[in-house]
Design a protein that fits this description.
This protein is mostly helical and 98 residues long. The chain has 2 domains: 58 residues, no CATH class; 39 residues. It has 3 helices and no strands. The longest helix has 45 residues. It starts with a helix and ends in a 9-residue tail after the last helix. 0% of the residues are buried.
Length: 98
């Protein structure tokens, strides 16, 4: 039993080294993903022809994004309420219970 515990303590640094390697590679993938998203978001803005429109969009990109997210949330909320209301109005009894 003592031999197993000593072996475990001797192998523990290798486990931490392996876990740290996994976490570092994971964070590297996340950083590359965020960098790619930045490229895909900013590149279409750079291709806008009119300078005033490009400046307006680049200055208000956060507000525009939040507004779009708000519209999506409102749509999903009302869509869900319509489904619930439809289920309440058109009640179908279970098999054998009429």
């Amino acid at each position: 039993m003592i031999k197993a515990i000593v072996t475990l303590f001797l192998k523990l640094p290798l486990v931490f080294k392996g876990l740290s390697t996994v976490f570092i590679s994971f964070f590297e993938v996340i950083a590359r993903f965020i960098d790619d998203i930045g490229f895909h978001v900013l590149q279409p803005i750079r291709t806008i022809r009119f300078h005033e429109v490009r400046d307006f969009i680049s200055e208000n990109i956060v507000t525009i994004s939040l507004f779009i997210i708000l519209l999506i949330i409102i749509y999903l909320t009302f869509n869900n309420k319509a489904k619930v209301w439809k289920k309440l109005c058109y009640y179908e009894p279970m098999n054998g219970m009429k």
